[in-house]
Amino acid sequence: MRGAGRSREADADFEEKVRKAASAIIEAQTSRIRKEEETSGSEKRELLPWPKRSINTKTAGLWLVVIAAVLGLAMPTVGGALLLCGIAAIVWATVLKPSGKRPSLHTTRR
């Protein structure tokens, strides 16, 4: 019976050593993976196959007009609202386009 108690203590010590070793291995792997992700994350952002673009206001207005024409047949109210939004977007992009140089409010004209 005394031998069984010692083997249980030895097993408990062995299990504790295995847990500590596994924990150390997991921590090492986790830190290695984090470092790899940090370095490869910046490279992946630079190597995208397509540039990130925003849609042009005129293009958005044109798409709204096209969608309005299609939806206008089934739902005239929604189509009309989209048509007005599309026309407003096109007008905003062409007529109300801000100029590159604006006079400052603090300067005086002579």
Notable features of this structure?
110 residues; mainly alpha
What is the element layout, followed by pairings?
Layout: H1 2-46, H2 57-74, H3 76-94
Care to describe what's here?
With about 110 residues, the protein is mostly helical. The chain contains three helices and no strands. It has helices spanning about 1-45, 55-75, 75-95. Helix 2 (about 55-75) packs antiparallel against helix 3 (about 75-95). The longest helix has about 45 residues, at about 1-45. The mean pLDDT is about 80.
Relative helix content: over 70%
Which strand-content bin applies to the residues? under 5%
How far is it from the N-terminal to the C-terminal residue, by CA? 108 Å
User: What overall geometry do the principal axes of the alpha carbons give?
Assistant: elongated
What sequence of helices (H) and strands (E) makes up the elements?
HHH
Major β-sheet profile: none
Q: Extract low-pLDDT stretches.
A: none
Short note summarizing the structure:
By secondary structure, the protein is mainly α.
